[in-house]
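From the shared-data thread, chain only:
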Amino acid sequence: MTDPAEARGVAAIEAAADAHRRAAAVLGPVVARTASQVAAVLAAGGKVLACGNGGSAAECQHFAAELTGRFRRERAAWPAMALTVDTSALTAVGNDYGFDRIFARQVEAFGRPGDVLLAISTSGRSPNVVAAARAGRARGLHVVALTGANPGPLGAEADEVIAVPESDTARVQEVHLTVLHAVCDEVERALAGESGQRLEP
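Structure, as tokens:
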């Protein structure tokens, strides 16, 4: 391979694959627990909230869409909200209370005891995500943190921590997406089972 751009592309894909292998060696149990918790909450009529910044915000929206829409099985819609999408709420809260409160204020508005809050921060230190986790625990939500190798203060505010054993932001985000897909798949298996029409082989 002589094309430098091609070589860099291959190297990036290989680095992502290596990160997934390292994560697979340690994250299985916590992913299974998280999926079980989400399934139990949805089965009981609760909902899932999710928050994060930048690429993590996009993953929140992706996860919520998989639950309200569908992942691999045709089944009922499930209630999930990404707290990253309402620009009026985000700007109003940011203007009146500060950027650090943009998610916490929404958790206070929409969160109910027994709901799940998915809090995503690759660094584990995003102040607005940490504040949301703190607000969630105060209201009786089950808080799941998705972080990189160092969960930081976010991990201290969470009931469950999915800490990807990587420090590079891109690698962490790539594994986070795979983890969220694994959670979606397990939740559908638990709640839709074989009665749900599988859409992919």
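The longest strand covers residues 142-147.
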